[in-house]
Amino acid sequence: MTRIDRYLLRQLSIALIAVTVGLAALVWLTQSLRFIELVLDRGLSMVVFVELTSLMLPSFFSVILPITTFIVVLFVYVRLASDRELVVMREAGLSQWTLARPAVLLALIATGVCFMLNLWLVPLSHTAFRQWQFEIRNQLVGVLLQEGVFSQVGNDLTVYARYRDPDGTLRGILVHDQRETGAPVTILAEQGRITTAPTGPRVTLLHGVRQQVEHAPANAPPGTPPMRLNLLSFSENSIDLARATRGEEVRSRDSRERAVSELLHPDPAEGLRDREIRRYYAEAHQRLSGPLTTLSFALVGLAVALTGEFRRHGGGARIAVGIGLVVALLAFGLTGGNLAARDNFWV
Predict the structure, then answer these.
(1) What's the sign of the alpha-carbon dihedral 131, 158, 140, 43?
(2) Which of 206, 217, 158 is nearest to 182 (CA)?
(3) Other CB atoms within 10 A of residue 22 CB
(4) Own/partner pairs for 304-313, CB < 8 Å, 24+ apart?
(5) What is the pLDDT of residues 286-302, one digit of tens each?
(6) Cα dihedral value 45, 46, 51, 52, nearest 10
Protein backbone atom coordinates (compact mmCIF):
# COMPACT_ATOMS: atom_id res chain seq x y z
CA MET A 1 0.00 0.00 0.00
CA THR A 2 1.48 3.31 -1.10
CA ARG A 3 1.60 6.51 0.91
CA ILE A 4 -1.21 7.95 -1.21
CA ASP A 5 -3.36 4.91 -0.46
CA ARG A 6 -2.75 5.28 3.27
CA TYR A 7 -3.50 9.01 3.10
CA LEU A 8 -6.83 8.51 1.32
CA LEU A 9 -7.79 5.49 3.42
CA ARG A 10 -7.09 7.37 6.64
CA GLN A 11 -9.32 10.27 5.64
CA LEU A 12 -12.10 7.95 4.50
CA SER A 13 -11.91 5.75 7.62
CA ILE A 14 -11.97 8.62 10.10
CA ALA A 15 -14.89 10.24 8.30
CA LEU A 16 -16.82 6.98 8.06
CA ILE A 17 -16.43 6.21 11.77
CA ALA A 18 -17.40 9.74 12.78
CA VAL A 19 -20.45 9.96 10.51
CA THR A 20 -21.69 6.44 11.28
CA VAL A 21 -21.33 6.78 15.05
CA GLY A 22 -22.86 10.26 15.02
CA LEU A 23 -25.84 9.23 12.93
CA ALA A 24 -26.36 6.04 14.97
CA ALA A 25 -26.27 8.09 18.20
CA LEU A 26 -28.88 10.47 16.77
CA VAL A 27 -31.16 7.60 15.76
CA TRP A 28 -30.62 5.92 19.14
CA LEU A 29 -31.53 9.13 20.94
CA THR A 30 -34.77 9.57 19.02
CA GLN A 31 -35.78 5.92 19.44
CA SER A 32 -34.86 5.74 23.13
CA LEU A 33 -37.33 8.53 23.92
CA ARG A 34 -40.05 5.87 23.68
CA PHE A 35 -38.59 4.20 26.78
CA ILE A 36 -37.70 7.26 28.83
CA GLU A 37 -41.15 7.17 30.48
CA LEU A 38 -40.23 3.83 32.05
CA VAL A 39 -37.40 5.60 33.88
CA LEU A 40 -39.07 8.89 34.79
CA ASP A 41 -42.55 7.69 35.73
CA ARG A 42 -42.39 3.96 36.38
CA GLY A 43 -39.17 3.37 38.26
CA LEU A 44 -37.13 1.43 35.72
CA SER A 45 -33.43 1.64 36.57
CA MET A 46 -31.10 3.61 34.31
CA VAL A 47 -28.88 0.54 33.86
CA VAL A 48 -31.79 -1.48 32.46
CA PHE A 49 -32.79 1.47 30.25
CA VAL A 50 -29.31 1.78 28.75
CA GLU A 51 -29.02 -1.97 28.25
CA LEU A 52 -32.46 -2.20 26.63
CA THR A 53 -31.94 0.68 24.23
CA SER A 54 -28.36 -0.34 23.39
CA LEU A 55 -29.68 -3.60 22.01
CA MET A 56 -31.17 -1.57 19.14
CA LEU A 57 -27.77 -0.28 17.99
CA PRO A 58 -26.74 -3.26 15.80
CA SER A 59 -29.95 -2.85 13.79
CA PHE A 60 -29.24 0.86 13.37
CA PHE A 61 -25.68 0.23 12.19
CA SER A 62 -26.77 -2.41 9.66
CA VAL A 63 -29.22 0.07 8.12
CA ILE A 64 -27.15 3.25 8.09
CA LEU A 65 -23.67 1.85 7.27
CA PRO A 66 -24.33 1.51 3.49
CA ILE A 67 -25.71 5.05 3.41
CA THR A 68 -22.87 6.60 5.42
CA THR A 69 -20.31 4.77 3.25
CA PHE A 70 -21.78 6.44 0.17
CA ILE A 71 -21.90 9.85 1.87
CA VAL A 72 -18.29 9.63 3.06
CA VAL A 73 -16.88 8.39 -0.27
CA LEU A 74 -18.74 11.05 -2.24
CA PHE A 75 -17.97 14.05 -0.09
CA VAL A 76 -14.36 13.14 0.76
CA TYR A 77 -13.49 12.84 -2.94
CA VAL A 78 -15.48 15.96 -3.79
CA ARG A 79 -13.54 17.84 -1.11
CA LEU A 80 -10.26 16.49 -2.47
CA ALA A 81 -11.26 17.70 -5.93
CA SER A 82 -12.23 21.15 -4.65
CA ASP A 83 -8.88 21.42 -2.83
CA ARG A 84 -7.08 20.51 -6.10
CA GLU A 85 -5.58 17.42 -4.49
CA LEU A 86 -7.05 15.10 -7.10
CA VAL A 87 -5.70 17.35 -9.85
CA VAL A 88 -2.19 17.08 -8.41
CA MET A 89 -2.49 13.31 -8.03
CA ARG A 90 -3.64 12.90 -11.63
CA GLU A 91 -0.81 15.13 -12.87
CA ALA A 92 1.57 12.88 -10.94
CA GLY A 93 0.41 9.99 -13.11
CA LEU A 94 -2.06 8.25 -10.80
CA SER A 95 -4.85 6.42 -12.63
CA GLN A 96 -8.53 6.46 -11.75
CA TRP A 97 -8.24 2.96 -10.29
CA THR A 98 -5.33 4.02 -8.08
CA LEU A 99 -7.39 6.91 -6.76
CA ALA A 100 -10.45 4.72 -6.22
CA ARG A 101 -8.58 1.82 -4.62
CA PRO A 102 -8.73 3.08 -0.97
CA ALA A 103 -12.48 3.71 -1.23
CA VAL A 104 -13.08 0.24 -2.68
CA LEU A 105 -11.02 -1.31 0.13
CA LEU A 106 -12.99 0.62 2.74
CA ALA A 107 -16.28 -0.38 1.09
CA LEU A 108 -15.23 -4.06 1.18
CA ILE A 109 -14.42 -3.77 4.89
CA ALA A 110 -17.79 -2.07 5.54
CA THR A 111 -19.52 -4.81 3.53
CA GLY A 112 -17.88 -7.45 5.73
CA VAL A 113 -19.05 -5.58 8.84
CA CYS A 114 -22.58 -5.50 7.45
CA PHE A 115 -22.47 -9.26 6.85
CA MET A 116 -21.36 -9.79 10.45
CA LEU A 117 -24.17 -7.56 11.69
CA ASN A 118 -26.90 -9.12 9.53
CA LEU A 119 -25.89 -12.75 10.07
CA TRP A 120 -24.89 -12.66 13.73
CA LEU A 121 -25.23 -9.51 15.82
CA VAL A 122 -28.65 -8.28 14.68
CA PRO A 123 -30.48 -11.59 15.32
CA LEU A 124 -28.69 -11.92 18.67
CA SER A 125 -29.47 -8.38 19.83
CA HIS A 126 -33.04 -8.47 18.51
CA THR A 127 -33.69 -11.69 20.44
CA ALA A 128 -32.36 -10.11 23.65
CA PHE A 129 -34.38 -6.93 22.99
CA ARG A 130 -37.66 -8.81 22.52
CA GLN A 131 -36.93 -10.92 25.59
CA TRP A 132 -36.48 -7.73 27.63
CA GLN A 133 -39.76 -6.37 26.26
CA PHE A 134 -41.50 -9.62 27.14
CA GLU A 135 -40.12 -9.57 30.67
CA ILE A 136 -41.11 -5.95 31.24
CA ARG A 137 -44.59 -6.45 29.81
CA ASN A 138 -45.41 -9.75 31.52
CA GLN A 139 -43.13 -10.08 34.53
CA LEU A 140 -42.13 -6.61 35.74
CA VAL A 141 -45.72 -5.54 36.30
CA GLY A 142 -44.65 -3.10 38.98
CA VAL A 143 -42.79 -1.12 36.34
CA LEU A 144 -45.83 -0.92 34.08
CA LEU A 145 -48.32 0.09 36.75
CA GLN A 146 -48.97 3.81 36.71
CA GLU A 147 -51.17 5.59 39.19
CA GLY A 148 -54.54 6.72 37.88
CA VAL A 149 -54.27 4.52 34.77
CA PHE A 150 -55.92 1.21 33.90
CA SER A 151 -52.87 -0.93 33.10
CA GLN A 152 -53.32 -3.95 30.84
CA VAL A 153 -51.29 -7.04 31.77
CA GLY A 154 -51.87 -9.19 28.72
CA ASN A 155 -55.34 -9.32 27.20
CA ASP A 156 -57.30 -10.55 30.20
CA LEU A 157 -55.92 -8.83 33.30
CA THR A 158 -56.43 -5.17 34.20
CA VAL A 159 -54.94 -3.42 37.25
CA TYR A 160 -55.77 0.08 38.48
CA ALA A 161 -54.30 2.03 41.41
CA ARG A 162 -55.55 5.44 42.42
CA TYR A 163 -52.09 6.53 43.57
CA ARG A 164 -48.76 5.15 44.72
CA ASP A 165 -46.97 6.11 47.95
CA PRO A 166 -43.25 6.92 47.87
CA ASP A 167 -42.53 3.55 49.52
CA GLY A 168 -44.32 1.71 46.70
CA THR A 169 -47.62 1.02 48.49
CA LEU A 170 -50.61 1.17 46.15
CA ARG A 171 -53.83 2.83 47.30
CA GLY A 172 -57.34 2.36 45.94
CA ILE A 173 -56.73 -0.82 43.90
CA LEU A 174 -59.00 -2.46 41.35
CA VAL A 175 -58.11 -5.77 39.70
CA HIS A 176 -60.23 -7.29 36.93
CA ASP A 177 -59.11 -10.85 36.18
CA GLN A 178 -60.57 -12.72 33.17
CA ARG A 179 -57.96 -15.45 33.00
CA GLU A 180 -60.50 -18.06 34.07
CA THR A 181 -62.87 -18.46 31.12
CA GLY A 182 -66.49 -17.74 31.98
CA ALA A 183 -65.77 -16.64 35.56
CA PRO A 184 -64.38 -13.09 35.63
CA VAL A 185 -63.27 -11.75 39.00
CA THR A 186 -63.24 -8.14 40.15
CA ILE A 187 -61.36 -7.23 43.32
CA LEU A 188 -61.45 -3.91 45.15
CA ALA A 189 -58.93 -3.24 47.91
CA GLU A 190 -57.89 -0.31 50.05
CA GLN A 191 -54.17 -0.88 49.59
CA GLY A 192 -51.63 -3.37 48.35
CA ARG A 193 -48.03 -3.96 47.46
CA ILE A 194 -46.34 -5.75 44.57
CA THR A 195 -43.72 -8.33 45.46
CA THR A 196 -41.55 -10.64 43.38
CA ALA A 197 -41.99 -14.38 43.85
CA PRO A 198 -40.08 -17.24 42.17
CA THR A 199 -42.95 -17.62 39.70
CA GLY A 200 -43.14 -13.88 38.99
CA PRO A 201 -44.74 -10.75 40.45
CA ARG A 202 -47.63 -10.96 42.92
CA VAL A 203 -49.83 -8.27 44.40
CA THR A 204 -50.82 -8.58 48.06
CA LEU A 205 -54.14 -6.84 48.71
CA LEU A 206 -55.37 -5.65 52.11
CA HIS A 207 -58.92 -4.96 53.26
CA GLY A 208 -60.99 -5.52 50.16
CA VAL A 209 -63.89 -7.27 48.46
CA ARG A 210 -63.79 -10.03 45.87
CA GLN A 211 -66.65 -10.15 43.38
CA GLN A 212 -67.24 -13.04 41.00
CA VAL A 213 -70.12 -13.76 38.65
CA GLU A 214 -71.02 -17.47 38.47
CA HIS A 215 -73.30 -18.97 35.86
CA ALA A 216 -75.97 -21.44 36.95
CA PRO A 217 -75.20 -25.08 36.03
CA ALA A 218 -77.12 -26.71 33.21
CA ASN A 219 -78.95 -29.07 35.65
CA ALA A 220 -80.09 -26.30 38.00
CA PRO A 221 -83.72 -26.55 39.18
CA PRO A 222 -86.32 -24.32 37.50
CA GLY A 223 -86.48 -20.78 38.80
CA THR A 224 -82.74 -20.61 39.51
CA PRO A 225 -81.26 -17.28 38.32
CA PRO A 226 -79.02 -17.73 35.26
CA MET A 227 -76.11 -16.07 37.06
CA ARG A 228 -75.22 -15.16 40.62
CA LEU A 229 -72.87 -12.59 42.13
CA ASN A 230 -70.63 -13.89 44.90
CA LEU A 231 -69.12 -11.40 47.33
CA LEU A 232 -66.24 -12.20 49.64
CA SER A 233 -64.68 -9.72 52.06
CA PHE A 234 -61.07 -10.32 53.02
CA SER A 235 -58.40 -8.74 55.14
CA GLU A 236 -55.56 -10.05 52.96
CA ASN A 237 -55.49 -11.66 49.54
CA SER A 238 -52.71 -12.43 47.08
CA ILE A 239 -53.00 -12.52 43.27
CA ASP A 240 -50.46 -13.93 40.85
CA LEU A 241 -49.70 -11.38 38.13
CA ALA A 242 -47.08 -13.46 36.32
CA ARG A 243 -47.95 -14.56 32.83
CA ALA A 244 -44.65 -15.68 31.33
CA THR A 245 -44.86 -19.01 33.16
CA ARG A 246 -48.17 -19.89 31.52
CA GLY A 247 -47.97 -22.19 28.57
CA GLU A 248 -50.22 -20.06 26.40
CA GLU A 249 -47.95 -17.06 26.98
CA VAL A 250 -44.76 -18.60 25.60
CA ARG A 251 -43.03 -15.97 23.50
CA SER A 252 -42.94 -16.73 19.80
CA ARG A 253 -39.84 -15.80 17.79
CA ASP A 254 -40.24 -13.57 14.77
CA SER A 255 -38.24 -13.75 11.54
CA ARG A 256 -35.57 -11.26 12.66
CA GLU A 257 -34.59 -13.49 15.59
CA ARG A 258 -33.89 -16.56 13.49
CA ALA A 259 -30.66 -17.60 11.80
CA VAL A 260 -30.48 -17.73 8.01
CA SER A 261 -30.50 -21.53 8.09
CA GLU A 262 -33.77 -21.47 10.06
CA LEU A 263 -35.28 -18.98 7.64
CA LEU A 264 -34.38 -21.02 4.57
CA HIS A 265 -35.33 -24.36 6.15
CA PRO A 266 -38.11 -23.71 8.70
CA ASP A 267 -39.10 -26.52 11.02
CA PRO A 268 -42.31 -28.21 9.73
CA ALA A 269 -43.29 -28.95 13.34
CA GLU A 270 -43.97 -25.26 13.91
CA GLY A 271 -46.93 -25.41 11.54
CA LEU A 272 -46.04 -22.19 9.73
CA ARG A 273 -48.46 -20.82 7.16
CA ASP A 274 -47.39 -20.26 3.57
CA ARG A 275 -47.38 -16.50 4.11
CA GLU A 276 -44.95 -16.81 7.00
CA ILE A 277 -42.67 -19.15 5.05
CA ARG A 278 -42.56 -16.66 2.15
CA ARG A 279 -41.68 -13.90 4.59
CA TYR A 280 -38.90 -16.04 6.08
CA TYR A 281 -37.39 -16.70 2.64
CA ALA A 282 -37.51 -12.99 1.82
CA GLU A 283 -35.85 -12.13 5.14
CA ALA A 284 -33.04 -14.64 4.52
CA HIS A 285 -32.28 -13.29 1.04
CA GLN A 286 -32.42 -9.72 2.32
CA ARG A 287 -29.79 -10.50 4.96
CA LEU A 288 -27.53 -12.11 2.37
CA SER A 289 -27.92 -9.42 -0.28
CA GLY A 290 -28.35 -6.32 1.86
CA PRO A 291 -24.65 -5.87 2.78
CA LEU A 292 -23.75 -5.78 -0.92
CA THR A 293 -25.49 -2.41 -1.18
CA THR A 294 -22.58 -0.98 0.83
CA LEU A 295 -20.19 -1.76 -2.03
CA SER A 296 -22.63 -0.67 -4.74
CA PHE A 297 -23.37 2.66 -3.03
CA ALA A 298 -19.64 3.32 -2.65
CA LEU A 299 -19.11 2.63 -6.36
CA VAL A 300 -21.88 5.11 -7.18
CA GLY A 301 -20.11 7.72 -5.06
CA LEU A 302 -16.80 7.03 -6.80
CA ALA A 303 -18.38 7.21 -10.25
CA VAL A 304 -19.88 10.58 -9.44
CA ALA A 305 -16.82 12.06 -7.73
CA LEU A 306 -14.09 10.86 -10.12
CA THR A 307 -15.79 11.35 -13.47
CA GLY A 308 -16.32 14.57 -15.37
CA GLU A 309 -14.05 17.50 -15.97
CA PHE A 310 -12.59 19.57 -13.20
CA ARG A 311 -14.43 22.83 -12.53
CA ARG A 312 -13.27 25.56 -10.24
CA HIS A 313 -16.87 26.32 -9.28
CA GLY A 314 -19.86 24.04 -9.49
CA GLY A 315 -20.11 20.28 -9.52
CA GLY A 316 -23.36 20.32 -7.58
CA ALA A 317 -25.23 18.68 -10.44
CA ARG A 318 -23.08 15.54 -10.27
CA ILE A 319 -23.60 15.31 -6.50
CA ALA A 320 -27.34 15.64 -6.98
CA VAL A 321 -27.25 12.87 -9.61
CA GLY A 322 -25.35 10.58 -7.26
CA ILE A 323 -27.75 11.21 -4.36
CA GLY A 324 -30.70 10.66 -6.69
CA LEU A 325 -29.27 7.33 -7.86
CA VAL A 326 -28.78 6.09 -4.29
CA VAL A 327 -32.29 7.19 -3.29
CA ALA A 328 -33.66 5.34 -6.32
CA LEU A 329 -31.68 2.23 -5.38
CA LEU A 330 -32.98 2.41 -1.81
CA ALA A 331 -36.57 2.75 -3.05
CA PHE A 332 -36.05 -0.14 -5.45
CA GLY A 333 -34.67 -2.30 -2.63
CA LEU A 334 -37.58 -1.53 -0.30
CA THR A 335 -40.10 -2.23 -3.05
CA GLY A 336 -38.35 -5.46 -4.01
CA GLY A 337 -38.28 -6.57 -0.36
CA ASN A 338 -42.03 -5.99 0.04
CA LEU A 339 -42.78 -7.82 -3.22
CA ALA A 340 -40.52 -10.73 -2.23
CA ALA A 341 -42.31 -11.09 1.13
CA ARG A 342 -45.59 -11.51 -0.74
CA ASP A 343 -44.31 -13.66 -3.58
CA ASN A 344 -40.91 -15.39 -3.54
CA PHE A 345 -40.78 -15.06 -7.34
CA TRP A 346 -39.26 -11.62 -6.71
CA VAL A 347 -36.45 -12.96 -4.51
Answers:
(1) positive
(2) 217
(3) 11
(4) 304/74, 305/73, 305/74, 305/77, 305/78, 305/81, 306/77, 306/86, 306/96, 306/99, 306/100, 310/81, 310/86, 310/87
(5) 999 999 999 999 999 99
(6) 70
pLDDT digits (tens, 9 = 90+) for 41-66: 555 667 777 888 889 899 999 999 99
Choose among 2, 215, 22: nearest CA to 99.
2
pLDDT digits (tens, 9 = 90+) for 241-287: 765 344 444 567 888 888 888 898 888 888 788 888 888 899 899 99
Whole-number Å distance between alpha carbons of 52 and 267: 30
**Other C-beta atoms within 10 Å of 216: how many?**
12
The distance from CA 146 to its chain's CA centroid, rounded to whole angstroms, is 24
How many whole angstroms from its chain centre is CA 323? 27
Q: What is the pTM of this model?
A: 0.72
Strands 151-152 and 200-215: unpaired
Distance CA 158, CA 146 (A): 12
Helices 316-342, 292-306: crossing angle, 10 deg rounding: 160
